[in-house]
Design goal:
heterodimer, A: about 120 residues, mainly beta, 7-stranded mixed beta sheet, 4-stranded antiparallel beta sheet, 11 strands, about 0% helix, globular, B: about 110 residues, 5-stranded antiparallel beta sheet, about 60% strand
C-alpha cells in the first residue's frame, strides 16, 4: 500500500534562517506531488505541484521554492524565512494516471513556527 | 478565479443528530469535488470524491452530493458520533489537478 511521510513534524525557526521540509512517498511510481500551506484562520493554499522529476510549477509568488530530486521525493525550501511563512505545511500525492485528476492523499504535515 | 465557500464555519450538535455541511464554488468547470476530514494538528483524510459527471457518493454514514450547475455540494452525516468531531474541508479540482479548498466547517458532536 502507498504511504506518504513528512518530516519534521514540528519546527521552530528564527526569521531569516533557511528551511528544508521533506516529503517522500512509498508504494507508487510517477506520482503527482503537491505542497500546500494552511495559515492560521485561512484555508489550504496550493504552493507547488510536480508531475515529474525536475518539473515544478508554482502557484503563488513567495520566498519558498520546491525541488523534486527523485521520483518520490519532494522538498520545500527557503533561503530566508519570514514571519508570514508560519503555518501547517502539507504534502500530498495523486496517482498521476491519464484520465484526469485523481484523489489526493495527504501526509501528516509539518507545523512551522517562525519567531 | 475559483473560490470555495463553506457554511457554517462551526457547528455543534448533540450525538445522534443527522447534519448537513454545505460547500459552494464559483466556477462550475471542475473535474471533481472532494470532502476531507482534518483532526487537530493532523493531515487530511479523504472522505469522498465525486466526479463532475456524478451526482452523489456514499460511504457508510456519509453521503455527499454535487450540483455542478448551481455550484453546490453537501455532506450529509447520519447519526453523528463524538468521533465525528473534526474540521471538514471541501475542495474542488482545477485543470492542473490542484485542489482549491474552502476554509472548512469545524464540527463538534457532544456526547
Amino acid at each position: 500500500s502507498q504511504t506518504i511521510h513528512q518530516w519534521p513534524a514540528t519546527l521552530v525557526q528564527p526569521v531569516g534562517s533557511p528551511l528544508s521540509l521533506e516529503c517522500t512517498v512509498e508504494g507508487t511510481s510517477n506520482p503527482n506531488l503537491y505542497w500546500y500551506r494552511q495559515a492560521a484562520g485561512r484555508g489550504l493554499q496550493l504552493l507547488f505541484y510536480s508531475v515529474g522529476i525536475g518539473q515544478i510549477s508554482s502557484e503563488v509568488p513567495q520566498n519558498l521554492s520546491a525541488s523534486r530530486p527523485q521520483d518520490r521525493q519532494f522538498i520545500l525550501s527557503s533561503k530566508k524565512l519570514l514571519l508570514s511563512d508560519s503555518g501547517f505545511y502539507l504534502c500530498a500525492w495523486s496517482s498521476g494516471l491519464a484520465g484526469g485528476p485523481d484523489t489526493q492523499y495527504f501526509g501528516p504535515g509539518t507545523r512551522l513556527t517562525v519567531l | 478565479k475559483q473560490e470555495v465557500t463553506q457554511i457554517p464555519a462551526a457547528l455543534s450538535v448533540p450525538e445522534g443528530e443527522n447534519l448537513v455541511l454545505n460547500c459552494s464554488f464559483t466556477d462550475s468547470a471542475i473535474y471533481n469535488l472532494q470532502w476531507f476530514r482534518q483532526d487537530p494538528g493532523k493531515g487530511l483524510t479523504s472522505l469522498l470524491l465525486i466526479q463532475s459527471s456524478q451526482r452523489e457518493q456514499t460511504s457508510g454514514r456519509l453521503n455527499a452530493s454535487l450540483d455542478k450547475s448551481s455550484g453546490r455540494s453537501t455532506l450529509y452525516i447520519a447519526a453523528s458520533q463524538p468521533g465525528d468531531s473534526a474540521t471538514y474541508l471541501c475542495a474542488v479540482t482545477g485543470s492542473q489537478g490542484n485542489l482549491i479548498f474552502g476554509k472548512g466547517t469545524k464540527l463538534s458532536v457532544k456526547p
